[in-house]
């Protein structure tokens, strides 16, 4: 038929695309069948085992009815390919990569795709079972076999030994294939130069010829300049294996073939399916007679690769890193040069991609060699980084490139193409129409185009492919081989049109390295190796950035493939987690160093300096010989030599390098998932910072040790101050991070369910400080507003005043905040309610006696008899003292909260403002209500509790520790806390009962006064020893109460007794020892 009816160009394009899809589909089937988790159930089901064996044995002649799915329907593709190759041979087409680039490329691609499909098919072990069972299912469903089954089954048998069958098939195509391959004899060696020649030619350098910097980068073979090396090598190796006869007859073929064999050990069939070119070639030629020389050539090339290939490619990668860095620096500074020098960018990307892919496939299938380090690259991050930077740069200045090339096409290319057409001595009508349409399309382009203009030159490029096919057949009216100038011009025009409407596609062709998705072990190893180099850390974000390319790996022929998405996200998240981990580790190590420096400036650290100064003043020897003199804070900043590098210098450098990596991109899109790298850093920093802050508390439950709140606050401030320096490296919200971490510390648990400072300090103050205070080992000191350790035989592991003075509790309030102190208060209230419950039980045990005492408090003789019947008075006072100690501590912590006054009662209390009635205590007492007791019974219990306390007060005079200490402003056994306990507890109890607090407290005051006055009637010295101290307690109860007054006290207790008590407890002169 006519050239237009043959549609060679269209068939080549369609079959190549289809073949690519079939390869991916077959690879998916192979992987699915090889993995136990994804293997089809019918292949593993025991009930189908005999059927599978029968199919494999009898295939393709199966007399079996079964059940199942899916078939690799590749026979149809192979038949179409074979038919098209025969048509091309019949047309005696002319192939030359430098003349009809697209036509030749598509032809060679078809051969290699077809071969790859056959080879991959032979690697699927379950293919017979799959196809056989599919056909049985088809026959059961439709009553007949699948129409293509017989042909596919026959093909499986024919290609049991694929290479032997393929070489037989391609024998008739030797002329066309050889001609196409030999056209690479200029292009391939030019691309395969050693690094020395790259360096001498200053490849990819714009600075080597400054005068020509604005000249457009052109070539006679524009598309060949960034043709992938692996593609050419696959053409050469496959082509000469299929048409091996030419190797013995054509020296040029032999040289080109040997050059291809010297390129490496493996190349890719598809994804992670590779082929060992030397082994396959040697096995094939061993089966042919007269090929002993070729086998020797193969072995010689393999030895050459073993010796030289690794080092050659290592040097290339090293050169490309420098060249890419220089080229990017120039183009980033002057993006206008992207127009004329766009070719340089795509060449740089293509060359770099070639080296990345070569290393990946050889690293995964590492041969046993003497120099394995040549196959390890710990600087791969830099090459990937600049590839990503160039991709981003091209996208950013896409309109600059587009505008330049639109003008180039309209004002230069259209004119030179028109001149070329005019100079052609023959131009048939069909070809003339196509060429004229090219000129008219380019001439009509707007010179002053707007950035929003849409361009599409797809039709022009397809027409050029058709024209190549029309003019490449034998006896074509317009033979393209006679018009090389037309090819050069159209090659340039094609590249320029791609710069206008297909930049993204060209970037995909020249720089996508999505094959890394199928080599996760190699990919992760590259990241790990790059992470170990300090100067590579700034490039590490290129690894997760590459994962955004993996979405391009799929194909419409394999829509059910979903593993790539999971794998891509896993890799991306793994890299970002590792990067965040490294960055946060360095940053927190830097913070730790700053914390040490700040710790040296703490007041307690100057004790040695003061001591040394004192010794100097007294002219005493400072230190023993041999002891190193301690350096003063700030000495670390003195440098005698700038070459000396400190640990801080190293950390700052490493942090700068790691943070620089985040500048590559602000976010990534991996399979429609938006990934923000800095969020991983913030998340990791938050987790680590929480751990560090909790660790700074140094809490040890066994030894009852914990850091002082002021030291902890200083440490937190040192960390947060240094953390804020991170925002000068990366644009992240450090304030939000710090607030989030510190806010979590004010709650009982952090976001990960771990203990917080609030939990630790609440536990410590309750279990260590307050428990010891209840045992009188620690004394509440109203004079100094703190707790102090009592000097006893049992030494405490801490000094109470160092944890409870005003400055420490203010630091505690700042660290824990209102929420933390609220949690502390709730725990304190729980302990109070526990004590109140016990007190109520004791009241119930002595209820009858207490009722009588309440009614007979003014009858001394009767009271004396009733006291003998009353049990547990010391226990009541002990428990009330504990309540008083807890309430005193709570009051101290509340005083340290500094917030604005609020009108709401509970909020005012939570803000640290004093209230006559403690709402938290009221709520706690109210929560103790039970259904078993009525309000009247509860009221009676509370009234009798006050009676119990009042009548038990004289017992305090028996305790030798009840003496009042003027220095501390309280009693040595903390009984002065009874004043707080009685006032606050009674106020809360009677508020719950909605009773008159003042009236009930008056009754308590009368009863307590009466019982205390009876102390004076007892003449035994042992009882009256601390009588005056107990009198002061009564005065404290009245003084602390907002409901009682001095007048009320004087009405029931003589003032002269109080005056004498104060005179006794406050002597005029205190000896120095007591001070």
Automatic annotation (TrEMBL):
It comes from the Eukaryota. Coiled coil: none annotated. InterPro entries: Nck-associated_protein-1. Pfam families: Nckap1 (PF09735). GO terms for cellular component: SCAR complex. GO terms for biological process: cell migration; cell projection assembly; cortical actin cytoskeleton organization; neuron projection morphogenesis. Residues 617-639 are annotated as: Disordered. PANTHER family: NCK-ASSOCIATED PROTEIN 1, NCK-ASSOCIATED PROTEIN 1-LIKE. This is NCK associated protein 1 like. The gene is nckap1l.
């Amino acid at each position: 038929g006519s050239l237009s009816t043959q549609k060679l160009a269209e068939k080549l394009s369609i079959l190549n695309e289809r073949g690519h899809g079939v390869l991916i589909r077959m690879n998916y089937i192979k992987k699915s069948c090889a993995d136990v988790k994804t293997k089809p159930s019918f292949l593993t089901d025991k009930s189908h085992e005999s059927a599978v064996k029968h199919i494999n044995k009898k295939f393709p002649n199966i007399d079996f009815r079964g059940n199942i799915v899916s078939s690799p329907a590749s026979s149809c593709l192979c038949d179409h390919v074979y038919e098209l190759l025969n048509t091309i041979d019949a047309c005696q087409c002319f192939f030359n990569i430098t003349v009809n680039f697209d036509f030749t490329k598509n032809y060679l691609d078809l051969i290699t795709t077809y071969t790859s499909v056959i080879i991959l098919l032979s690697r699927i072990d379950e293919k017979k079972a799959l196809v056989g069972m599919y056909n049985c299912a088809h026959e059961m469903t439709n009553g007949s076999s699948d129409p293509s089954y017989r042909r596919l089954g026959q093909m499986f048998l024919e290609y049991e030994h694929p290479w032997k069958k393929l070489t037989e098939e391609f024998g008739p195509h030797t002329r066309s294939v050889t001609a196409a391959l030999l056209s690479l004899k200029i292009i391939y060696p030019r691309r395969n130069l050693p690094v020395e020649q790259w360096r001498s030619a200053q490849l990819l350098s714009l600075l080597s010829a400054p005068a020509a910097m604005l000249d457009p980068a052109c070539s006679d073979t524009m598309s060949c300049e960034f043709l992938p090396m692996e593609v050419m090598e696959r053409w050469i190796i496959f082509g000469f294996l299929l048409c091996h006869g030419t190797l013995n007859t054509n020296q040029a073929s032999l040289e080109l073939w040997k050059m291809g064999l010297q390129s490496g050990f493996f190349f890719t069939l598809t994804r992670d399916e590779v082929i060992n070119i030397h082994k396959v070639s040697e096995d094939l030629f061993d089966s042919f007679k007269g090929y002993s020389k070729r086998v020797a050539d193969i072995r010689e090339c393999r030895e050459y690769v073993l010796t030289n290939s690794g080092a050659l490619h290592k040097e290339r990668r090293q050169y490309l890193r420098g060249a890419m860095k220089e080229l990017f620096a120039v183009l980033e500074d002057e993006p206008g040069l992207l127009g004329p020098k766009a070719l340089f960018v795509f060449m740089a990307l293509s060359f770099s991609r070639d080296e990345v892919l070569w290393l990946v496939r050889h690293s995964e299938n590492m041969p046993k060699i003497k120099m394995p380090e040549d196959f390890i690259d710990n600087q791969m991050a830099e090459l990937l980084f600049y590839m990503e930077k160039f991709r981003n740069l091209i996208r950013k200045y896409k309109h600059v490139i587009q505008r330049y090339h639109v003008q180039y096409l309209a004002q230069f290319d259209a004119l030179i193409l028109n001149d070329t057409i005019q100079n052609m001595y023959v131009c048939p009508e069909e070809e003339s129409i196509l060429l004229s349409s090219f000129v008219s399309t380019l001439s009509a382009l707007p010179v002053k185009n707007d950035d929003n203009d849409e361009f599409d030159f797809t039709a022009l490029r397809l027409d050029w492919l058709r024209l190549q096919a029309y003019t490449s057949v034998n006896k074509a009216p317009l033979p393209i081989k006679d018009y090389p100038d037309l090819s050069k011009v159209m090659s340039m025009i094609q590249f320029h049109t791609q710069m206008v409407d297909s930049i993204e596609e060209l970037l995909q062709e020249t720089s996508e390295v999505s094959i890394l998705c199928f080599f996760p072990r190699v990919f992760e190893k590259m990241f790990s190796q790059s992470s170990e180099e300090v100067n590579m850390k700034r490039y590490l974000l290129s690894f997760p950035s590459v994962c955004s390319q993996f979405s391009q790996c799929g194909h419409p022929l394999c829509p059910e493939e979903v593993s790539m998405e999971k794998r891509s996200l896993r890799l991306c998240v793994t890299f970002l987690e590792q990067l965040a981990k490294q960055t946060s580790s360095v940053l927190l190590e830097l913070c730790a160093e700053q914390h040490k420096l700040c710790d040296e400036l703490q007041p307690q650290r100057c004790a040695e300096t003061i001591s040394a100064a004192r010794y100097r003043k007294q002219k005493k020897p400072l230190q023993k010989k041999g002891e190193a003199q301690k350096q003063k804070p700030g000495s670390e900043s003195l440098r005698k030599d700038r070459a000396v590098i400190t640990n801080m210098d190293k950390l700052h450098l490493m942090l700068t390098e790691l943070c620089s990596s985040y500048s590559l991109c602000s976010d990534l899109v991996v399979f429609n998932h938006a990934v923000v790298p800095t969020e991983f850093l913030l998340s990791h920093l938050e987790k680590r910072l929480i751990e560090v802050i909790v660790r700074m508390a140094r809490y040890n439950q066994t030894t009852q040790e914990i850091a002082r709140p002021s030291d902890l606050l200083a440490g937190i401030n040192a960390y947060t101050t240094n953390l804020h320096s991170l925002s000068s490296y990366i644009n992240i919200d450090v304030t939000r991070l710090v607030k989030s971490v510190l806010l979590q510390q004010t709650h009982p648990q952090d976001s990960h369910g771990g203990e917080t400072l609030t939990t630790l300090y609440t536990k410590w103050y309750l279990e260590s400080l307050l428990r010891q205070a209840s045992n009188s080992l620690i004394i509440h000191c109203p004079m100094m507003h703190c707790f102090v350790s009592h000097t006893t035989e049992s030494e405490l592991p801490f000094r109470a005043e160092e944890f409870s003075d005003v400055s420490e509790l203010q630091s505690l309030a700042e660290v824990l905040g209102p929420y933390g102190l609220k949690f502390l208060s709730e725990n304190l209230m729980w302990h109070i309610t526990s004590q109140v419950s016990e007190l109520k039980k004791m009241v119930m045990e002595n209820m009858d006696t207490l009722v009588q005492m309440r009614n007979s408090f003014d009858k001394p003789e009767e009271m004396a008899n009733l006291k003998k019947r009353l049990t547990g008075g010391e226990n009541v006072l002990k428990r009330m003292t504990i309540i008083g100690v807890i309430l005193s501590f709570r009051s101290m912590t509340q005083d340290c909260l500094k917030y604005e006054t609020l009108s709401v009662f509970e909020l005012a209390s939570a803000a640290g403002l004093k209230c006559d009635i403690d709402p938290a205590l009221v709520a706690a007492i109210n929560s103790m209500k039970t259904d078993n007791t009525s309000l009247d019974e509860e009221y009676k219990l509370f009234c009798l509790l006050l009676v119990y306390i009042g009548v038990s007060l004289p017992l305090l005079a028996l305790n030798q520790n009840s003496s009042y200490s003027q220095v501390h402003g309280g009693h040595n056994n903390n009984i002065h806390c009874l004043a707080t306990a009685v006032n606050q507890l009674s106020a809360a109890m009677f508020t719950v009962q909605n009773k008159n607090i003042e009236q009930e407290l008056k009754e308590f005051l009368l009863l307590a006064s009466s019982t205390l006055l009876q102390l004076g009637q007892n003449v035994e010295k042992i009882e009256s020893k601390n009588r005056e101290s107990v009198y002061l307690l009564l005065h404290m109860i009245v003084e602390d109460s907002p409901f009682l007054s001095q007048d009320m006290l004087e009405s029931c207790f003589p003032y002269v007794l109080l005056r004498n008590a104060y005179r006794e407890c406050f002597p005029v002169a205190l000896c120095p020892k007591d001070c």
